[in-house]
Amino acid sequence: MNRKEINEIKKNLKKESGFLTWNRILVTIVNAYHEVELQKVMSPLTLSTREETMYGDILLQTLNTNVGKKSVQIDFETQRNEDSTMSSTQTALYDLVDTAFNSEQAISEYTDKVVLTYPEQKPYAVITAHCTYTVRHKNKSDEFDEMDQEDYNFIISAYCPVCAVETGFSYDFSTKTFSTEADKKLYIVPKATHGLLFPAFDNRSANIHSAMVYVAKEKEYPTFYIEEGLGCKAPLSAATEKSVWLSILESTFGDELDYPFLYVLNQRLLQAAEGFRQDTRLVKWGGKRFAEEFEALEVEKEQIDKFLNVWEYTMNKGLFPGYLHLENIIDKKYTVKTAEFTISYTAEHGDSVSTTIIEGSRSFSLKTANAVVAVNGAPINL
Q1: Is the dihedral of CA 180, 185, 189, 195 positive or negative?
Q2: What are the backbone angles phi and psi of residue 156, rounded to the nearest 5°?
C-alpha cells in the first residue's frame, strides 16, 4: 500500500466523491475500567449533516501519508488451525468487514479482541465505519473500463479520548432552578490519537493479511495494542533504532568516525530512501546492504568486516529482527553540539559545514552566502 493509494482512499472517503459508500457506523465508548459504557450501530442515512461531518472529519485524520512517523503498515502473523489460516484477531476483523456490522457476534468478537485491547487507562471512544469503495481499473488505452471494477470493502477506525464529567449540580433553564443530583456526561474529543484501516489497500485491491495503523504523535506506536491486540509484530521506535545504528558505527570506526564521512554516508542513505518514497512499508536493510554502501564509499575491507561482525553481534542479542529501517536512521537535520555551542541546520546545507584546525584548536567552519545573519533576533553584518 503506497502513499498514492492512501490518498486515493482519503479523497474518496469524502461524501462528494461518488465512488465510496458509507454503509454503517459503529460507536463504542469504553470507561476507565475497560468496560463498554455504550455501543451503537448507526446508518449514515439517519445522521444529521453535522454528525456526518464530525464522524467524517475524525476518520479522515487517520489516513496519513507520513509513513514511518504517523502511519505504518503491519502484517498479521498467520496461525494455521482447523478452519482458517488467519489468527483469531484477523478473523474477527475479517468477519466484521464481511458482515458489515449486521452480526452481533462479529461486533462482539471485534470489541473483545480489538477495541478492548487498546491500552488506555482513561475513557476512550472507538468510531468505526464500514465502507465500500468501487475501484475502477484502466484498460490498455489508459482509460477507466466500466466492465473492469471491483468493490473494496473495509473498516476504518479512530480512537479518541473521552472526557467524563460528573457535576455536583445542574441548572434547569425551564424551571430556573438548580439541582444537586449527580449528572454524568461523556464527551468524545473529536481528535483521533490512533487509527486502524483493515484490510490494507495493496495494489488497489484488498489485502486481508495487512492493516494500516495511525498515530497522532510521531513514532509512538502502541506496542501492546499491535502485538497483543492485533497479533502483529510492533515496529521498534525510530529513536531505538537510531541509537543502535550510532552504537554500531561507533564500535566499528571508533576515533576514525568523522564529520565528512557521516555527511557523505547520510547523503547516500537519503538518496536510497528517496527511491522508496511512495511505499507505506518501512524499508528494511540488513548488514550486507549497509556494507554495500561502505564499499561504494571506499571503506577499507577490514573495517567493513568489522562492521559486519559488530552488526551480527548486536542483532544476535535477540532485541532486533536482523535489520534496521532505513527511514529511522537517516538524518534530514543536523545538530552539532559541543560543551560550548549547539548549531542546527538541514541536511541540504550539510556541505556548508567543515572541520578544521585554527591556531591549534579544533573548529567548525560554516559557509553562508548571506552577508547578514541574526543573533538573538538582531541582524548583524558579517
Answers
A1: positive
A2: -130, 130
Burial 242-254 (b: 16+ CB within 10 A, else e): bebbeebbebbbe
Identify whether the C-beta of residue 124 lies closer than 8 Å to the C-beta of residue 118.
Answer: yes
* Three-point CA angle 319, 335, 256, nearest 5°: 70
pLDDT digits (tens, 9 = 90+) for 154-178: 999 999 999 866 656 666 777 777 7
CB 294 within 8 A of CB 304: yes
pTM for the structure as a whole: 0.70
The full DSSP string for 342-358 is: EEEEEGGGGGGEEEEEE
SS3 362: strand
Average pLDDT estimate for 229-245: 81
Report pLDDT for 80. Answer: 44
Cβ atoms of residues 165 and 177 within 8 Å? no
Please tell me the distance from the alpha carbon of residue 17 to that of residue 14, in angstroms, as a whole number.
Answer: 6
**Helices marked H in 254-379 — which ranges?**
259-274, 287-296, 301-315, 326-329
Model confidence at 82, pLDDT cuts 50, 70, 90, reads very low
Query: And the C-alpha cell for 154?
Result: 473495509
Measuring CA to CA, how many Å separate 26 from each of 55, 131, 157, 215?
Answer: 11, 12, 9, 21
